[in-house]
Amino acid sequence: MQLLNDRLASYLEKVRQLEQENAELEGRIREFSQQQVPYASPNYQSYFQTIEQLQKKILSSKAENTRMVLQIDNAKLAADDFRTKYQTELSMRQLVEADINSLRRMLDELTLCKSDLESQAESLKEELLHLKQNHEQEVNALQSQLGERLNVEVDAAPNVDLNRVLNETRSQYEALVENNRRDVEEWFAKQTEELNKQVASSSEQLQSSQAEIMELKRTVSSLEIELQAQHNLKDSLENTLTETEARYSSQLSQVQSMITNVESQLSEIRCDLERQNQEYQVLLDVKARLESEINTYRSLLESEDSK
Question: Could you give a GO molecular-function term held by this entry (predicted)?
């Protein structure tokens, strides 16, 4: 009987001890649960908003970079087009200048030909004058001969009209000289007219070519100015693109650093939650074992009481 009382007292003491330990464990579990409240739903909204804003900025900068690249490509195409036009206009200008040089040489040749024709005309005039002088000399000589023959042969030919013969001879010579003079003048006039037409045509072609060259020079100058403007626009766009890429690259590095920091913090919080969850599970297991032992002791006590 004393043994049973001792065992009962021992069981009761152990039960009180287990209940006390159980109460302590429940207090620790409650305290642990209360400490977990701040970690239950951490506020990452500000980080998410920052990340979203930075992502929008990155997308905007990418779109801006794409737009600038397109503008640069368009400027390059326009510059190539103007360069092609410039080369074409330059080739046309060189061809026109070559034509003008050829026309100038032709004009010089025509001028020399005109001078030669004028010299020939002067020579013909001199020759015509010389023919007239010879004609007059021949007429005078013929008159002298006829006068002498008239004195010698006056009895042989009393009915010959010497004046009529002289007049006929003079008329024949004058008609011949007039025909030669008229032929020479007509030939000279025709040659002069053709030469004047050639000179006028060459002058018109020269003036037209000079006007075309002036227009080509203005076109080339305008194309050079526009080409330089396109080069300046291209350089400006490339500089802007470089500055934008550098600026957004720095911002992207900052964003990436912030994202890395947030991910590191999230990883640490996740590790803390896992560790605290493991500790909570350990405490729950200890509580379950204690409750099982208490129930065992209680059942033993009840069985002893029933005896």
Answer: structural molecule activity
**Distance (Å, whole) CA 63 – CA 197:** 69
Instruction: List all residues 6 or more positions away from 221 whose beta carbon is below 8 Å from its beta carbon.
Output: none
CB 4 within 8 A of CB 301: no
Tokens of 107: 């004009």
Confirm whether 38 is domain-assigned.
no
- Domain containing 241 equals 2-30+44-306
**Full-prediction pTM beyond 0.85?**
no
Whether the CB-CB separation of 146 and 165 falls below 8 Å is answered with yes
Would residue 59 count as lying in a domain? yes
Number of helices (H), then strands (E), in the chain: 4, 0
- Tell me, yes or no, whether 35 lies in a domain: no
Band of residue 154 on the pLDDT scale cut at 50, 70, 90: very low
Residue 244: closest CA among 52, 54, 68: 68
Encoding tokens for residue 114? 């005109």
- The set of residues, in sequence order, having a beta carbon less than 8 Å from that of 203 and lying 6+ positions away, is 107
Q: How many CA atoms lie within 13 A of 101 on its CB side?
A: 6
Q: In this structure, are residues 224 and 85 in contact, taking their beta carbons and an 8 Å threshold?
A: no
For residue 154, the 8-state DSSP code is T
For residue 171, give both structure tokens. 């008329």
Q: Say how many CA atoms lie within 13 Å of 168 toward its Cβ.
A: 5
Across 253-268, average pLDDT: 80
Closest alpha carbon to 275 in 32, 26, 41: 32
Q: Measured between alpha carbons, how far is 103 from 203 in angstroms, rounded to an integer?
A: 9
Question: Hey, how many other C-beta atoms are within 10 angstroms of the C-beta on 75?
Answer: 20
Position 127, amino acid: E
